[in-house]
Write a structure and sequence with these properties.
The structure holds two protein chains of two kinds. Chain A is mainly alpha-helical. Chain A is 41% helix and 6% strand. The chains are: A mainly alpha, B alpha/beta.
């Protein structure tokens, strides 16, 4: 899970979930704590989906 | 005239192919096989006084004995330089060339030179300690190899100063030498950019490390039963950074017990990372290492469990070699602990 997807592609990660921002990949301090937690839940749900998905090559899980 | 001893395998000595790869080392007076091309390229400045021929299998299977025999043979001639190969992409030959050249250099204190294809296993093993000229991957590249190796051979034999790898044609050996460029940086950068825009060749002054590729692991069959671990390069550590993980160029990683930890708070966790604004991670480290939500998932049955330990380092100018070393260590532990999948977060 990373914000700068091209770096993850360069270093060879196979399942990539794009995140919010460099200093807070899994949060957004501009939002309320509840809204932030929702974002984090969504991103991690996507990460779990990525782990459950067969891939043959580097894959970015946008949604 | 400069004296050179040349090492080649059974194939290049025209003794035979695989069926003769078992022959032990023997000395022949003068030039054999590819030595002829070298001799011509030396234009009378150097002479190959002896050629040592050794089977590739013999050398690799009897390395200690072969090494000491060949060293004795080389010593007799007291040459100014020892050349091995070129080995192109022949694996055992490349390893033999590198091994024997290294041994001659170390034990007889004679300059050495070999040549091989960049992907020959011998190249990675020895390119940092001896001069290895990069060749094509088959003997069809002999002429090209000799053209690059012969001038460097003469320089080495004469004890002259050896220039940068890009000028002399040897494989980069990781050594850096300071020098003054003729043009200033801005001018060189613009030149490179113009070449790039015009699809012309240009040479970067900051080559990227070679990152390896791994085949993707199979999907996790049932994520609701899986044990998930967290690993981060975002520098999340217990408050106070007990292991003193460096804020940049990290030389270590930490392993931290989160048994019973439901939420990372300002009082208990922080980031050690010096490469991004730490304010948000210090206020709530879940923004980098999402322990809180994974605990919820655990309770809701969305995952089997969250692994008891998380691993953390600072990915800020950290050497690829270090990072690779960390991962090799903790991956072993994660496997031994029965972890099914890892979520890595980076900042």
């Amino acid at each position: 899970m990373c914000t700068i997807v091209p770096i993850s592609l360069t270093v060879g990660a196979n399942r990539i979930v794009p995140t919010i921002a460099i200093p807070h990949p899994l949060g957004n301090p501009a939002l309320s704590l509840e809204e932030e937690r929702d974002i984090r839940r969504n991103l991690l749900t996507r990460a779990l989906k990525a782990l459950e998905t067969e891939v043959t090559d580097q894959t970015v899980f946008e949604k | 005239m400069l004296k050179i001893v040349h090492y080649i395998n059974q194939f290049f000595a025209n003794v035979g192919g695989e069926e003769m790869a078992h022959i032990p080392a023997e000395v022949r007076e003068g030039v054999v096989g590819p030595g002829l091309a070298f001799q011509q390229a030396f234009k009378g400045e150097a002479e190959i006084v002896a050629t040592i021929v050794c089977g590739d299998s013999y050398f690799n299977e009897n390395m200690d004995e072969a090494k000491s025999t060949v060293i004795k043979m080389v010593k007799e001639y007291q040459p100014d330089l020892f050349i091995a190969g070129p080995a192109f992409n022949a694996g055992r030959y490349g390893v033999a060339c590198g091994t024997i050249a290294q041994a001659v250099k170390d034990e007889l204190n004679i300059p050495v030179l070999t040549g091989m294809y960049a992907e020959n296993p011998g190249a990675d093993m020895f390119k940092n300690t001896i001069y290895i000229v990069s060749t094509k991957n088959s003997a069809a590249g002999m002429r090209d190899a000799v053209k690059k190796m012969a001038p460097l051979a003469l320089k080495l034999a004469k004890g002259e100063k050896i220039g940068a790898s890009a000028e002399e044609g040897y494989m980069p050996n990781g050594k850096r030498v300071n020098f003054f460029e003729k043009d200033r940086g801005s001018k060189r950068a613009v030149k490179m950019l113009l070449a790039k825009l015009a699809d012309k060749e240009f040479e970067t002054e900051l080559p990227m490390p070679d990152f390896d590729r791994v085949a993707p692991n199979p999907a996790v069959k049932d994520i609701t039963k899986a044990k998930i671990a967290l690993v981060t390069s975002g520098g999340i550590v217990p408050k106070g950074n007990p292991d003193h993980i460096e804020s940049s160029n990290a030389s270590k990683y930490g392993k931290y017990d989160i048994d019973g930890v439901m939420d990372l708070t300002e009082e208990t966790y922080q980031t050690a990372h010096g490469g991004y604004d730490p304010v948000y991670a210090n206020l709530d480290a879940d923004r980098v290492l999402p322990v809180d939500v994974l605990r919820e998932f655990e309770k809701e049955g969305k995952i089997g469990s969250l692994h008891r330990y998380y691993y953390s380092t600072v990915g800020n100018g950290t050497a690829v070699k270090n990072a690779k070393g960390f991962a090799a260590e903790y991956a072993k532990e994660l496997k031994a602990d029965g972890v099914d999948a890892v979520i890595l977060t980076s900042t």
